[in-house]
Each structure stands twice: as structure tokens, then as C-alpha cells.
Protein: S-DNA-T family DNA segregation ATPase FtsK/SpoIIIE
Amino acid sequence: MFHSRNAGAAQVQPTSPVPAHAIRFATPVVETPAVFLLTRWVYRAVRSVVLAPFRFPVAVSTLAGSVATVHYLGWVWLAVAVLLAGAGLGVWWWRWPVAFRSLVVLRAVAAWRWLWVYRRHWQPVLVVAGLAESYQERQYLPQIRKVTCTEWADRVRVRLVAGTAPADVENRVVELAHGFAAPSCRVTVAGPRDVVLEFPRRDLLAEPLAALSVHSPVDLCALPMGLREDGQPWRMRLHGTHVLTVGVTGAGKGSVIWSAIRALLPAIADGTAQVWAIDPKRMELSYGRALFARYADSAESAVGLLETAVNAMQERAARYAGRQRTHTATADDPFVVVILDEVAFLTAYHPDRDIRRRAENAIATLTSQGRSVGFGVLAALQDPRKEVMNLRNLFPDKVALRLDEASQVDMVLGEDARERGANAHLIAPDVPGVAFVRLEGSPAPVRVRAAYVTDDDIAAMVADYGARGLRSVPGAGVA
Structure:
């Protein structure tokens, strides 16, 4: 019989090729000799002892003095020294409380917060927040260099891990604030790999501010506007500068405008200051139009007002030429502030190209030439993009209320504003009037809150200071 050559052989099904697996390399584990561990522990202990007098001079001096007193004089003299020191501190606190709080209390608070809050929770907070870096199965953390305290906040100076950027910390400010139980966190760049984390112990700007009282005489270079984050009054300069206020709808631009008008009331009454108002929405400024020397609420009348201001400015400059270089507000030559609410309506959104061109030319002329002869511009804007408002660099002082995007912060306040902690895009919607202010010649933005001027406050302002000679401009339709 004939048999197949494969008779009795098992039938083998063809198989799919097995994909190659990636080769995984494990980091070799080498036992560290005990002598190296012991040497490192001894080094750390000696280093801590050597640096202790420099980091905690008062505590180390007190401890050393107490030990020396007990050793040479006994416990009785130590008790006497403690009583005398306590009496001396009491007299210091009674006679010079400010110096005592600055040199003793705040330093003690800083030492306590460094030990109990930051050093104790530093590693878990930074690991959970995503600021810990790993390399070859070793963990690297930013290091605390110093903790100082002011009346309202803790300032934690931190050395970053090599290869990280301040932006990595800025993107984790919410996590850091919650991790250390602070209302907020602000990051300021102090140098290469050197940042300062500012944690307020309480937010002084959390509660709305009522309209401020009206004070006379008026300092046009320091108008009371509200409160700064350190508890000091926020004062804004109008004479000799121009101010651009930017914020989304509901951010509190009206609070800034009306606080400035309220601060000017005595000067308006005695004729040394005038407010020329442009109100395209007819909802923000129209309620107090009796306070204004000129008022416009349509595109044509607004451009007419701006061109009238340019003519008045140039006439004054011609009179000053060769006679004086600075302006002093008087009844004959009052300080004129032109307030433009929603300035983008004139410069970008209006369909008439001629209106946009005339408005831009007039605003550019006022902001480039008006400050030295007593003409200032206070403009409000929602969208800071260059195609909407390409004149923003002509405003020396800027106020950034709540913004939509992080990139808009640098558009308004300058290129490095976010690196200095001005996180206007993180302002909560429920705190209208909170803003970051950057002044001409000052690199550091300041967090502030403008006072809220209610409709009743405006009605009282009109009743007490309302002008009798309100003038319209061509096309304004104002009686």
C-alpha cells in the first residue's frame, strides 16, 4: 500500500506573527554603603547647626544666653532675666507698637508659619500639585529659601528645580492656594530660578467697598479710588497721564470710572476740573450727565467732542509755547479729563470708516500731546486686542480688571505682567472692581479694588454738584 509521506503527522494551523515587545530596562539598584549614609546624616546635622544662628539669630541667641545664665549664675538669675526681658518687651510694645510688630511679632509669625505650614506640608502639596520632578527614580522639589510676613500676607521665596520655568508655578497657583489654605497665590519672578510665592492670610478685597467720601481739596495726582491688597488706600493719578481700563462685561469698569468722577467733584464744583463724557451705550454715564461739562452719546457727536478737545488742547499749547512747560489747574485753564466708555465702539466697531479714522486720529493726538497741557483721557475697553484698540500703548497707566484669557494680561499690562503675579484672567466673577494696576515707571502691578458707586450715590452727586451749564457738541442732542 502506498502511504502519504505526512501520514500520522499532526495538522498544524498557521499562526500569526507575534509582534516584537519593547525591551524594558530597569534601573539597577545598588545598595548604598552605610558609611555614605552616615556621612550624609552627619553633614546635614553639622550644616543645620552652623546655619542655625544665621537663619534664627534671635532664637539661637536667646537659647545660648539662657544656657550660659543657668550654667554660670543659676536658675534664679535666669528667672530674673526672663522677667526683665518680658518687661522690656512690654515697654517696647507700649511705646513703639509699630516697630515692635515689625521686628518681633511678624518675625515670630514668619518662623512659625515656615515651620508649621510650609515646611510641614511642602512635599505633599507640591507633589499633588504636579510641581515635583523625577529623574532616575529620584524626586526633586523646589526649595524654600526664606519666609517673611507682612501685615496681610506670607512671602515664600523659592528656588526652582533646574529645568523648570516660573510659568510651571503660575499654572498651579490655584492648587498652591488651596494646598496652603490661602485665599489666593501670586507668583513674582525675582531672578533666574528664583520666585516669590505670595499667600495672603486674608483677602482684604473680598468684600465690596462702599463709595468713598468726597474730600476737598482735590489732589489730581492722587485721587482716592478704593483699596489696595495691602490695606492701603488706592490712589490714582489723572493729571499728567492717561489711563486705560480693560475688563470683560461685569468686571467693574463702571466702578473705576465713577470713583474717579466722585473724587473730582470738589474740583468740578470750583471750576478747576472738567469732565467731558462719551457714552455710546447711553446707560453708564447718562445718569450723571449734569456733572459733565460736555456730553456725547452718538458716534458723530462723540467724534465732534474729541475733535473739540483736540482744538482746545492745541489752543492751550499755543498759549503756553515759550512761556510755561507744565500745567497748573485753575478756573481759567481747568484740567480736562475725557472719559470714553466702550472706546472700541468708535475705533473698531462702528461701520462708518470715516468715523473710525477721525476717532483714532483725535484719540492719538490727545494721548500723545495732551498730558503736558492739562488734558487727560480715561478710556474703558472690553477687548484689548490690537485690531480692536491699536492705541493702547499711548496710555501710560493701565488697569486690568477680570479678563478672558491669560494672553490678554500681557496685552494690557505689559509683556512680563504675568511673571510679576498679575493674574487678571484668574479674578473671580463675583468680585467686580478687583483689578491689577500698572503705573508708568513702576514694573510691579498692584492688586486693588475700586469702590462701588451706586445709583443712589450718583443721584446724590448730581444733586450736590450738578452743573448748570452742561453743553452739548454738534449732533449730541443734549439739552
